[in-house]
Design goal:
Blueprint (H helix, E strand, L loop, with lengths): L1 H21 L6 H13 L23 H22 L4 H17 L3 H25 L4 H12 L7 H8 L3 H12 L3 H19 L4 H7 L5 H12 L3 H8 L14
Helix pairs in contact: 2-3, 2-5, 3-4, 3-5, 3-9, 4-5, 6-7, 9-12
Length: about 260
């Protein structure tokens, strides 16, 4: 076991050195997250986000440039489907659409075709999410409030901010939001933050403390308490139970 760990550490150290020498760096996490959230919102300008769609800073998953691009495109497609699922896309639609595109990616034989299908994937998912939001039976004020929540999930959202963005009275907005969604604005935000935390626990190597801080929880204990209330388990246990070995092979070690 120790020998395997030492060998893994040696390889990681060598790879990091080679990347620094070659000027190769992975995408900044916040930049990548902004890209996926733009697709989730159905942002019509999503192709303008570099984020995960920028081939200039892709990590090296294969010595073959074509295979490397395929692997990253498959990961991107899987991630987009999960974000859209969290945003309200029906489960079967999200997963089946992802499967169809991944099978297409597998058959492509040149980088130009991969770039074209990448843009198609982004446009398709974002268009479906935009239509989903536009056809939802929420009033314009509630719809605007939900859109604001998604766009500012990684900061503190106040009722005053929501009301100002929606252009209506705070008391009126609170009553309307509760009537249409069945939740108070605060509980709705809390639920969205927990869903985002679940996503990060499964598909990123970030610690639960870092995730809680990124999502604006006042303390790590507060994050754990809220997360347990919604999922029935601590963030660490959730990660151990549901960790995706498909996208990230090894889950980080965390306490209980």
């Amino acid at each position: 076991m120790e020998q395997e760990f030492d060998e893994s550490r040696r390889k990681l150290s060598g790879a990091l050195y080679d990347q620094r020498e070659a000027g190769m760096y992975h995408q900044a996490y916040q930049k990548e997250l902004a890209f996926y959230e733009a697709v989730q919102r159905g942002d019509p300008g999503v192709l303008g986000f570099s984020g995960a769609a920028d081939d200039g800073q892709l990590g090296r998953l294969s010595s073959s440039p074509l295979r490397n691009q395929k692997y990253h495109l498959i990961i991107m497609t899987a991630m987009i489907s999960r974000f859209c699922l969290r945003g309200g896309m029906p489960l079967e639609t999200a997963f089946t659409l992802s499967d169809l595109y991944i099978r297409r990616i597998d058959l492509l034989g040149d980088e130009e075709s991969l770039a074209a299908v990448r843009d198609e994937i982004v446009r398709d998912f974002s268009r479906r999410m935009r239509e989903l939001r536009e056809t939802h039976l929420y009033s314009k004020y509630t719809s605007r409030a939900v859109a604001f929540m998604h766009a500012h999930l990684h900061g503190r959202i106040t009722l005053q901010q929501l009301a100002g963005y929606c252009g209506c009275n705070k008391t009126y907005l609170c009553a309307l939001f509760k009537r249409e969604t069945g939740l108070t604005a605060a509980k709705y935000i809390e639920r969205l933050k927990v869903e985002a935390a679940e996503e990060m626990l499964l598909y990123s190597g970030r610690s639960s403390m870092d995730i809680g801080g990124t999502l604006g929880f006042s303390s790590h204990s507060h994050f754990i308490s809220v997360f347990r209330k919604h999922t029935g388990m601590t963030p660490a246990k959730y990660r151990r139970t549901h960790w995706s070995t498909v996208l990230v092979p090894t889950a980080p070690e965390e306490g209980a």
